[in-house]
Amino acid sequence: MTKKILVVEDDENLVNLLRIYLVKDGYEVHCVKNGKNIMQVIKAFEPDAILLDWMLPDIEGIELCRQIRFEHDFPIIMISARTDELDIVLALEIGATEYIRKPFGFREMLTRLRIHLKRHEKEIRQQERISELLIGPFRVDLVTFKVFKDEVEIPLTKREFKLLLHLLEQPGNIKSREEIIDILDFTKGDRRTVDVHIRRLREKIEEQPSSPKWIKTKSGIGYYFNSPTKEVSYN
């Protein structure tokens, strides 16, 4: 089935080039020049991924990214001339899957897009085979991407969900910061962002975040999920 790519970019020359390269690579492409009614556009087009410019005439792409990520988990590739590290970190924390600086090579862009589409497709196939994970008081619905503790839903961002799931799947196994960076598609070497996500996750699942019961730290190495039982059940 042909993959659909939504391009949100106001530079007409770049839009035309993106359309040419994407169509040539076998994608169905729809382009818009602003963020107006973006959720309706997504509902109508049903894209498999989005190429999203940061600087748009009516709204910043970073805000669009936040809105889209709240409802959808497909790859969002931010493209921007902004090169400040804090901007890149912000985009990734908000929910961008990838950040590509302008000007960029189209072959590189296509390669990155293919990688993220394949990864997302693999995640979907895995979720279709297994619908639920159970360990201790935690229940993870792998279809709706929701986490429950004692049957009370815990509101998580996409990356918080992925991080908790990664820890839950192998209780007791220490996950290094480098491994978590790779799993969550953070910028390589961004250890600080890992610590921030762990802290936020603890604030949501722990009764006493400053003295965590579930997510433990192995000093100098990383983090692990602490459980009396190492048995994980799948339904």
Automatic annotation (TrEMBL):
CDD domains in UniProt: REC_OmpR (cd17574), trans_reg_C (cd00383)
Keywords for the protein's UniProt record, in alphabetical order: DNA-binding, Phosphoprotein, Transcription, Transcription regulation, Two-component regulatory system
Gene3D superfamilies: 3.40.50.2300, 6.10.250.690, Winged helix-like DNA-binding domain superfamily/Winged helix DNA-binding domain
OmpR/PhoB-type domain boundaries: 130-227
Domain Response regulatory: 4-117
Residues with 4-aspartylphosphate modification: D53
SUPFAM superfamilies assigned to the protein according to its UniProt record, in alphabetical order: C-terminal effector domain of the bipartite response regulators, CheY-like
DNA-binding region: 130-227
Iron-sulfur among keywords: no
Record-linked Pfam families: Response_reg (PF00072), Trans_reg_C (PF00486)
Protein name according to UniProt: Response regulator transcription factor
